[in-house]
């Protein structure tokens, strides 16, 4: 059978990452004698804007021209905005085509699929074995109840089979990036890494070439804003990881890896063993990684990571307020977080603290506590990354929003949220505009203190002037918006977006983070789809 796998667009993207999860699925499909093809929509929209577009249906036409027997859809749950319309258009042309959905865009929103864009199958959990068994079923080789983790449409509802996580991860073959434009993605990931590494001196003279690396799966913790299918943490053997590094280095000439584990330092002994082995093998590579839990870190672990070549490690700090850490069910304390930061700095690994603003209960006091924490940790805005609290279906935070009637309609909610960091719903104790102003001012204050404390007086003065100018801009904006209609406000926002992306096209007003020109195409397409939907309702 021929399986076509779709990698969907996301909103407000800054850098593109390769469709790693679909590469694993494609590899599993081919391993049992079937054919697999991946269509990477974000890549096509960005790389070939004159050939592939959403607005004129040229991209849909290209997809329908492919030869396939099964359609597989993957992605994070915030990509549902695309699939909601896409599935209906596919069904208009190929009514009996088997459609299967995996990833967090699948089972967590099962009711949305059922009521608005029914697909035949949803896969819960890891998809490699499930897709193999599903293809066996479609060929009549087994019964549907044998497909672990499958939710299948029957008599107007989804029946469910219990999922079974992969027990031995080493049975999963190495993935190849041959079927995607790997040089494009190496370049994208390299630019991303150069952007987010706080200490550029760690890059040395040679430019890094980066690809993702998965060394473990699952996370045993249950932070309220997070969703993951599996609480059972499992990891590849040290031998497997080292051979995978050698394979990717030899095949694609990479010298750095982005570790994409949910939680890299979950098992202290395993982390030390892996890093010490990488050091002994003298592989000549470096690593950037997220997935760090501060309460699990030790000096011995950090020193082994330093020897292995870690040039950036980020922690899920989330807040400097114990109240907010408790709300998030982080299972950490402010003191543990501070100790982890100081220990990592002392060992000499460049680090970043990930912070979440706007959780339920966030107020002026908790923001002030976070500000004091960051200043006490001697971090600048280059050493912490802030995001807005966003609830995704499947996470406890989303259940909270449903219980408190903040989300009366899940589909409508999914059509309004964007990708990570795209803020639309306020969960804090004060208005959104005030929350944003307070966080922006916090960042200005933190940088001013940081640069002054560390003897960079010129930068401290610049940050102080930036703060004054920002206050003036915000005052003028509020004054203007107070006297114009909501319709005019929307027009001004659209003009700002068009001008911004137009300037990006001719490299005027470029900023550090790379902004994708295809974002404008996606937003226009969304607006067009919603307009057509509104007309149809009338």
Strand-helix topology:
Blueprint: E1 2-7, H1 20-31, E2 35-40, H2 41-47, H3 58-64, E3 70-73, H4 80-93, E4 99-101, H5 110-116, E5 121-123, H6 128-138, E6 150-154, E7 157-160, H7 182-196, E8 210-213, E9 216-217, E10 234-235, H8 238-252, E11 256-259, H9 268-281, E12 286-292, H10 299-308, E13 310-318, H11 322-328, H12 334-347, E14 351-357, H13 364-376, E15 384-388, H14 396-403, H15 410-416, H16 432-453, H17 457-481, H18 486-505, H19 518-537
Parallel strand pairs: 1-2, 1-3, 3-4, 4-5, 8-11, 11-12, 12-13, 13-14, 14-15
Antiparallel strand pairs: 5-6, 6-7, 9-10
CATH superfamily of the largest domain: Aldolase class I
- Strands of the widest sheet, in order across it, are 2-1-3-4-5-6-7
Domain count: the total is: 3
CATH class categorisation of the largest domain: Alpha Beta
Q: How many strands, which pairing sense, and closed or not: the largest β-sheet? A: 7 strands, mixed
Task: Please sum up the structure shown.
The protein contains 19 helices and 15 strands.
